[in-house]
Amino acid sequence: MAVLALGLRMSAGFEKTLPQQHAYIKTFNQYREALFGANRLIVVVHARHGTIWNPPVLRQLMGVTDAVNYLQGVDRSSVMSLWTPNVFFTEITEEGFKALPITGGDIIPDKLNPQVIADIRGRVAAGGYLGNLVSRDQTSAMVLAELQDSDPQTGQQLDYRAFNQLLEDKVRKHFENADVEIQIIGFAKAIGDIGEEASRVMEFFGIALLLTALAVYWYCRSLRLTMLPLACSLSSLVWQFGTLRLLGFGLDPLAILVPFLVFAIGVSHGVQQINFIVREIAAGNNTEQAARHSFTGLLIPGTLALVTAFISFITLTLIPIPMIRELAIAASIGVGYKIVTNLVMLPLAASYFSFSQEYAQRAIGRREQHSRWLGGLALVARPRNAWIVVALGAALFAVAVWQSQGRHVGSLQAGAAELRPEARFNRDAADITARFDVGLDWLTVVFEVAPAGKLDACSRPDAQLFMDDFAQQMNGVPGVLSTRSVADVLKGVNAGLNEGNPKMATITRDARGLGSQFGSANNQLHGFSSSDCRAQGVNLYLGDHKATTIKGVVAAVDQFRLANRLDGVNIRLASGNAGVQAATNEVLERSELPMMLYVYAAILLLVLLAYRDWRAMLACCLPLTVATWLGYWFMKDLNIGLTVATLPVMVLATGIGVDYAFYIYNRLQLHLGAGMAISDAVERTLHETGVATVFTALTLSIGVATWSFSPLQFQADMGKLLTFMFLVNMVMAVTLLPAFAVVLETIFPRSAGAARMSSSIAH
């Protein structure tokens, strides 16, 4: 498996992020060839001094255009800049219309002079390219290109990390100098940068591993017992990576944390095993007896916890986003292997060790020292105190539900939310958005136009007026920087037919004239209309792709659709990267509640099957519910939106939280079955497993807290979120769970037969 694991590579794909069955994505796939898609690359040549209207900058722009044009994965027909032949301006001459490229065949790059540059500048203004291909302040010029997710000849998926390296080597490093800055944004660039930074996750994993090892050693003071849970968890991690390679999967940069989070689950279970073994050795048992007792004593709670985590991840496959499904499969494989390595292999390996009586005596002393402070915590077992703790838990739950209202789904940050705000990509995105009317974030609304009577789709003035009215209304929507549509192009053509009179920049009402204008403007309609005019797009250029921005724009489009109708014209959402993001956000929002309900249903069913007692179901799940809502509150306060990266983490946090609950409740059942009073049983349980639970939570929290310093924003957010969830689940498990168990036993005392059955099951 280690040999296979060495062949595992990072694998990112644009198609993997798309919820293919969503209506927006169906629209995108249907018209992605006729209209601009969503996998766009934007390269901007920015003059550090003055404007772009000087020979060195224009020559650099041409060089960048050629370099982008020949990059592997670029759809060459989609490349647009001032130096490409598909960017035209149209003028009226004595001989009629004259349509020429902005930089036509009569312009030689090596012989640019002030007059030639002035001509180019005039053509840019006449063609209406200020604000899109040229910035409003004329200090920057843009190169646009659409990327193909796979090579049409070989069928191989585009390697985004390799493509990102090409962008850096052949574009940025090659053309950037003291006079020109090269800025690059787009999905491919973002994924490439994320992949580069994600490769550093091993550094944080190494730090977390070292801190965990030191903490475990401090706890058990045995090098062998320290290495045992780490080795078992690492073994399952290697098996997991090898299995993924066998199945043909890669490791997505956005999901790279998940295997290491599964590793953390393994360490958590391993520490429980070590705690049990050390306790048995301290009680006078030899190592084999201690290992046997650990195996039998923790098999049920450990299996319940891991099966719950397994089912939790499996439910994620119901989300129709390929990347999340791959993540769910990878995580499920890892959790499945944990059942073998941490519940079977670890105690089996420990049984071959031997420890002196001196170590056993020291272990007894450390155990008493570690558990001394739990005497105060055990006061929750007294009935009066238990009622107070449960009341406080209910109040905290109510506040958490109230404060978590209004949580956002999707990105809450401009630029690439996965990267830090100060990352080069996000700085480039902010600069481009500030200088251009277009940028990385746009939403394309598709108008399906059917022929009407004798008029074909290209000759319907009412359809163009309808689209123009839509664009005008969208210009007033918060978050929309500008709009661009067929109507804008036709207005320019109509003004040109009337000596450039700005009053004539309008839609002609004459059907034959409109059809003629479509023919004249054909070269300018690339990306806005299909060849038969049956599909026409209106691009809404947004200031960012924050969830709140996209949701507001989509709501405005829906409102227009409901309030305005035109026979033979159908409005469909959506294309563009913002349209894709809107679809993903909607899928995540619809999926979150069912996912959590499935997880809780699995926990309830497993607890019922294991303990045959409804009290166990409530005692294990209610504290977990409080912790989950506290996590939502934490996400809202830290502006962490629900994304394809955070949803699996919340599911994982639920799985780890229930681990603590199962281990504590299983031991509680054992003592209740032995005839102990509920208060004594809780106190004994906290002395035996409370230390391990608190220690495990603190150890894992310290390890994942180091991720807060990651150069990737989503890793930093996950480090903060997991640290919080580990700690709050631990607090709920050692306070609210025993208090709630006491309250339940007080109100609904169990019979002697039920107590004996509980003891038998726990044993």
TrEMBL record:
Please give the start and end residues of each transmembrane region.
201-220, 227-248, 254-278, 298-321, 327-353, 374-402, 593-611, 616-634, 640-665, 686-709, 721-748
Compartment(s)? Cell membrane
| Database matches in Gene3D superfamilies | Multidrug efflux transporter AcrB transmembrane domain
The membrane-topology field of this record reads: Multi-pass membrane protein
Q: Which UniProt keywords apply?
A: Cell membrane, Membrane, Transmembrane, Transmembrane helix
Domain (SSD) ranges: 225-352, 626-743
PANTHER family from the UniProt entry: MEMBRANE PROTEIN MJ1562-RELATED (PTHR33406), SSD DOMAIN-CONTAINING PROTEIN (PTHR33406:SF10)
Its protein name is Efflux RND transporter permease subunit
Upper taxonomic lineage = Bacteria, Pseudomonadati, Pseudomonadota, Betaproteobacteria, Burkholderiales
